[in-house]
Write a structure and sequence with these properties.
The structure is a homodimer. Chain A is 50% helix and 20% strand. By secondary structure, the first copy, chain A, is an alpha/beta fold. Chain A has one domain (4-127): Rossmann fold. In chain A, α3 links the parallel β3 and β4 (89-93). At the A-B interface, α1, α3, β4, α4 and α5 of A face α1, α3, β4, α4 and α5 of B. β4 (89-93) of chain A pairs antiparallel with β5 (130-131) of chain B, so a sheet runs across the interface.
Chain lengths: 134, 134
């Protein structure tokens, strides 16, 4: 079964810290990198860095899962560019801790990337809830 | 109409960076604070800090919206403790950029906190999507 490589791209450092927070809970994860676009950063540099990571991991026959914060803005533009340029790339928008935990928990046991992504999105939708005891 | 105060609590610094990333896009936001629990931090200290913020803002008659990463672990335990102890507190799990942007965009125009939270959850569910051009 193909290994599943996770690339997180967000505005600012929030994706980088999200990965660290999940690793605080689950332990260090292989095949996961987070990139952030800070104010004043070059979008071209970020795109090159993302592309380098993708090419390197596709060479090792890994499936690529890109997670971004929102549709719109440079992180998702870079992700969509990669989707058009390379095959076997998947993108989920709306990244949160639920999605990332589900992917890390399930990627060793769920063979199909399609099924894994569906599971991750379900986890997020089911875990995004309101609590009110008033 | 009551002002709506947002308190984000997460494992690690990801909530703190999420708030900064959203402010990078939308500009600085009033009535929003993020707290993080780092490895080795005292949960009691975090709870006290959260409680102080909540009491201070409730004194100013603001509605409190707590956003946490996942249900389970100290951030959500602290939030649930506050829900039991104080009235007019709301909690959403699964925080991401979509939820935060929706709350900041809508909290000045949507009077009812109930309606605002529903809108925020809808935004997250509708914006958590998979894209695949293969």
């Amino acid at each position: 079964m193909s290994k599943k490589f996770v690339l997180i791209i967000t505005h600012g450092d929030f994706g980088i810290e999200l990965l660290k927070s999940v690793e605080m809970i689950m332990g260090e994860q292989e095949d996961a990198v987070a990139l952030g676009l800070r104010l004043g950063d070059s979008v071209d540099d970020l795109r090159s860095k993302a592309e380098e990571i993708i090419v390197e991991n596709q060479t090792m026959s890994k499936d690529i899962i890109i997670l971004v914060d929102i549709l719109g803005g440079s992180p998702s533009n870079i992700a969509l560019y990669m989707l058009k340029k390379y095959s076997n790339i998947n993108l989920i928008t709306g990244v949160n801790m639920l999605i990332l935990i589900e992917i890390f928990q399930s990627r060793e046991v769920v063979e199909e990337t399609d099924e894994l992504l569906e599971k991750a999105i379900d986890s997020s939708i089911n875990g995004t809830k309101r609590y009110n005891l008033n």
